[in-house]
Structures are given as C-alpha cells and as structure tokens.
From TrEMBL:
InterPro entries: RNA_pol_sigma70_r2 (IPR007627), RNA_pol_sigma_r2 (IPR013325)
Species, as recorded: Hymenobacter lapidarius
SUPFAM superfamilies tied to this protein: Sigma2 domain of RNA polymerase sigma factors
Alphabetized GO MF terms: DNA-binding transcription factor activity
Protein name: RNA polymerase sigma-70 region 2 domain-containing protein
Transmembrane segments: none
Domain spans labelled RNA polymerase sigma-70 region: 41-84
Pfam families: Sigma70_r2
Gene Ontology biological-process annotations: DNA-templated transcription initiation
Amino acid sequence: MKTEPDSHAAPRPHLVPVGAPADAVLIACILSGEKEYFELLIRRYNGALYKVGRSYGFAHATVQDLMQDAYVAAYQALGKFEKRAA
C-alpha cells in the first residue's frame, strides 16, 4: 500500500436530482438491455467510492484501478441484486 501524495483531485460527488430513478429502477433497465444506464450508477457513486479508497491511504492511480475493478464486478453481479438492498 503506497501512500505517496499526489495532486489529483477527487471526483466531484454527483448529486442525485430530485425525481431521479432509484438504483433498483436503473438496475432493472440495465438488465433489460439498456446498458447505458450503468453510467448513471457509476456517476452516482464515483465520488464516494473514490473517497473510501483514498481514506485507506491508496494513491490516486491505485484508487482509480480499484474503482474500475469494483465497477466491472458490480456490472457482472447485477443479476444478483436484491431490491431490499436499495
């Protein structure tokens, strides 16, 4: 675990607009073939996920790699999503 300082700013948190579809709705759309909705989920959680990675002391590039891995894993597991988790 490398904790070198860097000049990269955290991604700006994406505020969910009032009336925006819930995660469960977006996931249902993605599972029905509308894969472009996955970008909305990524934008919704990008800032928070980045902050978690940095809070563990990981360098910017490492956090970016971990986020990409997390999003790929999340996409592959969408079929297992339980609506009670939203």
